[in-house]
């Protein structure tokens, strides 16, 4: 069969009149032959066909080629230099392969090039300086590679550039001031690099920019006040940097801003409260030095005082500081001795982890206070139940809404589940994970006190008649989940496998941001392991084949479950639906519909015939379903990882923002 498929390409040289060839989404699983067509070929699309081996040098003989797309395959080796012979080429898309080596200056000979998609490969070396000479460029996607260099200043020459993705590389140096010349730009993602120094004021000139992510860098200095001129901005992420100073009040002018994140920086002063800030939650501002403002942001109120009062406070501070330090040291020493004494007397022999060790916001809560908060675990406050216990809504004495997860200790597995959640959650810090406020534990009672999610679960929003999520909301939620999994799999010192992904474990806060919850059967992989075995099974329908058959779990099991959940979210059909029996499954049902019959499987309320942007939205859903299928490949090695998933879905979100 493979010989037949391979000869198919070889026979194309006989098709003298052939101009357009698209064999995408066919399982060819072959190596491209040295001769892949003829000089008449204008468009060659071989997307997600399981291509192997290297891109042949003979590709450079297709002198009429305008569009080349070999994305989503298993191609290896370097980009052949002969591609520079394709002088008419306008679109080069090689994303999602395993290409290595340098990008090289050869591509700069392609003066008609408008689209360079080389993301999700293993390319290394520098960004070619000559890219700034390709003034016809509209999109540059180089994210998720191993590039290491500065961002060339002459990229500012690209007046027609719409999308720039350099995320997940090792780029260093400063953001060039020339970046402010990219007036047409609508998306810029420079996240997860090592960029340093300040954000240039010139960035405020990007008045068409919709999406800007600079998260996870080493940026310093203040947030430029010029950003208030970026009137089209809808998404701004500056989190996980070393940004300091005030949040400019002028950012209240950004009326289109829907997502704003400056967490994990060194910001001080008052959080703006008008304009888009009225709709933001405390998650946008956590882990900063000294922010103050509205109580809904969970920061202390701001106190205005005269310089005279501040001077007096400083003098008092100088006088009492030595005494205070001495008292603190004595108190700490006493507390240390007392805690050791208490632990020696009351250690729970069944509890392998001290739950207080992961609590950062407050001390342990007493059993009596938890009963008060939940009206003695009244049935009217029950908001959910699972294999190991129940969850109750409550209100603490300070007015904080909580969700109390009470474990059923009649089940031995519940003890292990409590232990596991304590062990895992004490090491995790991420916006898209459910936050643990504190715990309550004694010999007869164990509970985790979680941040209350006022909008319930994704499962409720998908299947309750009184709720509805449009296509953009569903995609945003699934991006949040993808980011959470990307952090668990790639951002922790030891990778964490959730093991039980499903819509009921995706909780939505007041801003409809998604948070991954329930780590009761999760696993942590040690440094010398890539997979491990377990007898604990997750929810049927979401389990990867190797997990269900062999009990083997790895991060790829989460990827599989995520793919099933992604299909479910857009089809509004559970994998356990009675229509699926025998050979038909949710995965097969969706796969059979691609690419031309996707409207037959998606939620009929998602895209209506009256929708002015129905064609564009259908294209986006097709792309989403292709990602889901890639997540659910039978072999774990063949599945894409969550970095790739998150990056691809974010690109689709940008396309949807134009609808």
TrEMBL record:
Its EC number is 2.7.11.1. It comes from the Eukaryota. Its main location: membrane. It is a single-pass membrane protein. One of its GO terms (cellular component) is plasma membrane. One of its GO terms (molecular function) is ATP binding. Pfam families: LRR_14 (PF23598), LRR_8 (PF13855), Pkinase (PF00069). ATP binds at residue 405. It is found in: Cell membrane. The keyword Lipoprotein does not apply. Keywords: ATP-binding, Cell membrane, Glycoprotein, Kinase, Leucine-rich repeat, Membrane, Nucleotide-binding, Phosphoprotein, Receptor, Repeat, Serine/threonine-protein kinase, Signal, Transferase, Transmembrane, Transmembrane helix. SMART domains: LRR_TYP (SM00369), S_TKc (SM00220). The chain crosses the membrane at residues 316-339. It catalyses: L-threonyl-[protein] + ATP = O-phospho-L-threonyl-[protein] + ADP + H(+); L-seryl-[protein] + ATP = O-phospho-L-seryl-[protein] + ADP + H(+). This is non-specific serine/threonine protein kinase.
């Amino acid at each position: 069969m493979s010989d037949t498929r391979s000869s198919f390409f070889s026979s194309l040289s006989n098709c003298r009149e052939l101009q357009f060839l698209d064999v995408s989404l066919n399982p060819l699983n072959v190596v491209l032959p040295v001769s892949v067509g003829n000089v008449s070929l204008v468009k060659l699309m071989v997307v997600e066909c399981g291509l192997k081996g290297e891109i042949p040098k003979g590709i450079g003989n297709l002198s009429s080629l305008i569009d080349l797309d070999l994305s989503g395959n298993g191609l290896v080796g370097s980009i052949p230099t002969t591609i520079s012979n394709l002088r008419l080429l306008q679109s080069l898309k090689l994303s999602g392969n395993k290409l290595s080596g340098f990008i090289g200056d050869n591509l700069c000979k392609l003066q008609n090039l408008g689209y360079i998609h080389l993301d999700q490969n293993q390319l290394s070396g520098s960004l070619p300086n000559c890219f700034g000479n390709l003034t016809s460029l509209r999109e540059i996607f180089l994210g998720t590679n191993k590039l290491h260099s500065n961002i060339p200043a002459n990229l500012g020459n690209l007046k027609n550039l719409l999308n720039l993705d350099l995320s997940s590389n090792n780029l260093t140096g400063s953001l060039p001031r020339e970046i402010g010349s990219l007036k047409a730009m609508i998306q810029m993602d420079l996240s997860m690099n090592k960029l340093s120094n300040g954000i240039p004021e010139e960035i405020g000139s990007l008045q068409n920019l919709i999406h800007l992510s600079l998260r996870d860098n080493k940026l310093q200095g203040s947030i430029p006040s010029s950003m208030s001129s970026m009137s089209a901005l809808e998404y701004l992420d500056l989190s996980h940097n070393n940004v300091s100073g005030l949040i400019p009040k002028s950012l209240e002018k950004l009326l289109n801003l829907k997502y704003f994140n400056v967490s994990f920086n060194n910001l001080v002063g008052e959080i703006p409260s008008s304009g888009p800030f009225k709709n933001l939650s405390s998650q946008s501002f956590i882990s900063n030095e000294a922010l103050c403002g509205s109580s809904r942001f969970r920061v202390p109120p701001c106190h205005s005082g005269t310089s005279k009062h501040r001077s007096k406070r400083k003098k008092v501070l100088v006088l009492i500081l030595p005494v205070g330090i001495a008292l603190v040291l004595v108190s700490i020493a006493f507390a240390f001795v007392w805690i050791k004494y208490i632990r020696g007397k009351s250690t729970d022999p069944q509890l392998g982890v001290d739950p207080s060790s992961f609590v950062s916001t407050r001390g342990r809560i007493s059993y009596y206070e938890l009963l008060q908060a939940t009206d003695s675990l009244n049935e009217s406050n029950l908001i959910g139940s699972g294999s190991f216990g129940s969850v109750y809504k409550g209100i603490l004495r300070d007015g904080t809404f909580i969700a109390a997860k009470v474990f059923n200790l009649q089940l031995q597995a519940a003890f292990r589940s409590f232990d596991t959640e304590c062990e895992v959650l004490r090491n995790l810090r991420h916006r898209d994970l459910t936050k643990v406020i504190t715990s309550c534990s004694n010999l007869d009672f164990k509970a985790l006190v979680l941040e209350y999610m006022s909008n319930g679960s994704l499962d409720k929003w998908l299947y309750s008649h009184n709720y509805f999520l449009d296509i953009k909301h569903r995609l945003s939620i699934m991006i949040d989940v993808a980011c959470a999994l990307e952090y668990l799999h790639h951002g922790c010192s030891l990778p964490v496998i959730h093991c039980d992904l499903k819509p009921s474990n995706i909780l939505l806060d007041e801003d409809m941001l998604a948070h991954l919850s329930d780590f009761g059967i999760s696993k942590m992989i040690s440094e010398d392991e890539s997979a491990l075995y377990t007898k604990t099974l997750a929810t049927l329908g979401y389990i990867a084949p190797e997990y269900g058959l062999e009990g083997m779990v790895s991060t790829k099991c989460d990827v599989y479950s995520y793919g099933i959940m992604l299909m479910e979210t857009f089809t509004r059909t559970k994998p356990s639906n009675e229509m699926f029996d025998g050979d038909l499954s949710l995965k097969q049902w969706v796969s059979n519909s691609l690419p031309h019959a996707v409207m037959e499987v998606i939620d009929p309320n998602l895209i209506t015939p009256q929708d002015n942007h129905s064609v564009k939205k259908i294209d986006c859903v097709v792309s989403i379903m292709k990602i889901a299928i890639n997540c659910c490949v039978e072999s774990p090695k063949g599945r894409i990882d969550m970095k790739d998933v998150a990056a691809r879905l974010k690109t689709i979100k940008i396309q949807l923002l134009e609808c």
